[in-house]
Amino acid sequence: MSTLIRILLADDQALFRESLALLLATQPDMLVAGEAADGEAAVALVATVRPQVVLMDLRMPILDGVAATRRVRATHPDVQVIVLTTFDDDADVFAALRAGAIGYLLKDVSGETLYAAVRAAARGQSLLPPPIATKVVAELARLGGQPAAPQPHPLSEREVEIVRLLARGATNREIATALVLAEGTVKNHLTSILGKLGARDRAQAALIAKDLGIV
Predict the structure, then answer these.
(1) 3-state DSSP call for residue 85?
(2) How many other C-beta atoms are found inside a 10 Å radius of the C-beta of residue 133?
């Protein structure tokens, strides 16, 4: 059984796609299964090439990256999308994450970070570089003084404590220390939290918790 990670490249710059394909080809566990020059073509190709990971540009003709990400995630929830773009303003970051992107990378990222993000996404895990993760935490902190109206949610009291620390950017170890829990117990709680909130990863869980008025 093949262990290759099938990747779809979606970017309107042919030279960038070619360079990216050559870069990914150096990895023995990665295969570029297809390329698209616009968002609409990317959505269509997902159904035919069946990638595990899509590297999605934001600014593309016909259908932009955010809209394309939303469509891919709606029709193929098993396919993970990593945004790979030159734009890092807050609106773009949060629009992409809310659309379902599991990662957000800038095009000046190192090859090693790109490889790590692709491998993490293939496992269903998020890898946000520190500058992007900081934006997520900062936005949650900024909204902290404007709490949403509390809504019914499925989390236990302990899970609420954990997701509040998560929203402040705490690591599993820091959460374990703060709540006097084993780190493995924290991981189990996080798995439960993601399932109950329907979140793919920590960043989306924090955003959903904010929307529900939990944090």
Answers:
(1) strand
(2) 16
Nearest partner of 24 among 46, 5, 52, 10, judged by Cα: 5
Read off the pLDDT of residues 111-156 as tens digits, 9 standing for 90 and up: 999 999 999 899 888 777 777 776 766 665 565 545 444 556 788 8
- Residue 52, pLDDT score: 96
In angstroms, the CA 56 to CA 36 distance is: 9
Count how many Cα atoms sit within 13 Å of the Cα of residue 182 in the half-sphere of its side chain: 3
Q: Could you give phi then psi for residue 10, rounded to 5 degrees?
A: -125, 105
Q: 83 forms bridges with which residues in the sheet?
A: 56, 104
Please state, in angstroms and as integers, the Cα–Cα distance from residue 215 to each residue in 71, 163, 211, following that order: 29, 8, 8
Spell out the domains of the chain, with CATH numbers in brackets: 5-125 (3.40.50.2300), 136-211 (1.10.10.10)
**pLDDT tens-digit series, residues 41-78:** 999 999 999 999 999 999 999 999 999 999 999 899 89
Alpha-carbon distance of 17 to 178, in angstroms, equals 45
Nearest in space to 100 (alpha carbons), one of 118, 126, 123: 126
